[in-house]
Write a structure and sequence with these properties.
This protein has 398 residues and is of the alpha+beta class. The chain has helices at 15-23, 45-51, 68-75, 90-99, 104-109, 111-125, 133-138, 140-150, 157-168, 174-200, 206-217, 222-235, 238-252, 255-263, 268-279, 311-314, 349-366; strands at 28-31, 39-42, 57-58, 130-132, 288-290, 294-296, 299-301, 306-309, 371-372, 395-397.
């Protein structure tokens, strides 16, 4: 078996280079993450894509041996029982309920509102001639959309941002553990109050629909309701923020690609898929747990092990993607796994794609002179964990 990697590998500031070098030694490697637990990284497309839908790799923490199971339960207790961390038949039941809000017709009906939000944000930026594209555009666009879809006040978005970054990042010291506990409590209190409001006075929003399903059809228990709402709030904006930020950085540092996209706007859908592949917003798929002894890439995976599929590495496998480190908005047959694969394929992918199409199209149309307002070498990535891949800031001028 290859030598076990230290847990710091998972926090590499340059994951693409680190994973490329490691992939040359083999597709699967042991890693000490979470610290002290048996875990493995999957880095290639041949093994990574099937692993995302392998029934031997479960999502429920019920498959985690003690004492580690207690640690998983404590880390994100507010998210316990959400559909992303469930297996059939619970996963099937939970996903079916939420999928009603993400039908193609419902998503397409949001286009005018998404366009209006994008235009309003750019109107506010224009007089200044400069902006942090994350704070001023990439974050407020999807958070406003998901807030309106759920039925929660947009004015609370600052709290949502802190909650999201805390719940998707690792807690590696006592201060982070304490803050995560505080956030778990705050999120629970927040949604408990809103659920009570919707029970008393239902509205035409997703929270009311889920409360109704909980009370009338008994499709959810109380914890599943809280976990589902928290997941929708986080996943409904966190990934799109970084899709927009990472994609714009890629464009602004590849002038020939930016020029091509300006000249051929019909390439926008292809460009969005390439942004997802080239530097997608999710670096690592959520935890999977081996339900039996198995083998991946010639490496023995003992029952109870954690398996991490590194989506960023899978999407840059040179055996599948020619010149994988190069941004190519004309790339054909782009079979990336940025949204996952199989039964856990991202439910919000159609909404994320629509938001991205509107965002990039509007930015390029209304800010024709947009460019980086710093040296590319000064750009810093968040290192809060390997799950989300995103920037700290994206200064631009126009």
């Amino acid at each position: 078996m290859p030598e076990k990697l230290p847990f710091e590998f998972i926090l590499s500031p340059d994951p693409h280079a680190a994973c490329a070098a490691l992939r040359e030694k083999g597709p699967v490697h042991p890693v000490d993450f979470p610290p002290g637990m048996g875990a493995f990284l999957v880095l290639d497309y041949e093994h990574g894509r099937p692993a995302l839908n392998d029934p031997r790799l479960a999502k429920s923490v019920a498959w985690v041996p003690e004492p580690f199971r207690a640690r998983f339960d404590a880390d994100n207790r507010i998210l316990a029982g959400n559909m992303l961390d469930s297996d059939p038949p619970d996963h099937t039941r939970l996903r079916r309920l939420v999928s009603k809000a993400f039908t193609p017709r419902r998503i397409e009906s949001l286009r005018p509102r998404i366009q209006a939000i994008a235009d309003d944000l750019i109107d506010a930026m224009l007089p200044r001639g400069e902006a942090d594209l994350l704070d001023d555009f990439a974050f407020p666009l999807p958070i406003t959309v998901i807030c309106e879809l759920l039925g929660v006040p947009v004015r609370d978005q600052a709290a949502f941002r802190d909650w999201s970054s805390t719940l998707v990042g690792p807690a590696l010291d006592e201060a982070q553990v304490r803050h995560r506990e505080e956030v778990n409590t705050a999120v629970g209190d927040y949604f408990t109050a809103i659920i009570a409001e919707r029970r008393a006075a239902p509205r035409d929003d997703l929270i009311s629909a889920m409360v109704l399903a909980r009370d009338d059809d008994e499709l959810l228990d109380d914890q599943e309701l809280l976990a589902g709402l928290t997941l929708l709030l986080i996943a409904g904006h966190e990934t799109t923020v970084n899709l927009i930020g990472n994609g714009m950085l890629a464009l602004l540092t590849a002038p020939e690609q930016l020029k091509t996209l300006r000249e051929r706007p019909e390439l926008l859908p292809s460009a969005v898929e390439e942004f997802l592949r080239h530097d997608g917003p999710v670096g690592r798929a959520t935890f999977r747990f081996a339900t039996e002894d198995l083998e991946l890439g010639g490496v023995h995976i003992p029952k109870g092990s954690v398996v991490h599929i590194l989506l960023g590495a899978v999407n840059r496998d040179p055996q599948v993607f020619g010149c994988p480190d190069v941004l190519d908005i004309t790339r054909a047959d782009n079979r990336h796994v940025a949204f996952g694969h199989g039964i856990h394929f991202c439910l919000g992918a159609p909404l994320a794609r629509l938001e991205a199409l509107v965002a990039f199209g509007t930015l390029l149309e209304r800010l024709p002179g947009i460019e980086l307002d710093c040296d590319p070498g000064a750009i810093r990535w968040n290192r809060s964990g390997s799950l989300i891949r995103g920037l700290r800031a994206l200064p631009v001028r126009f």
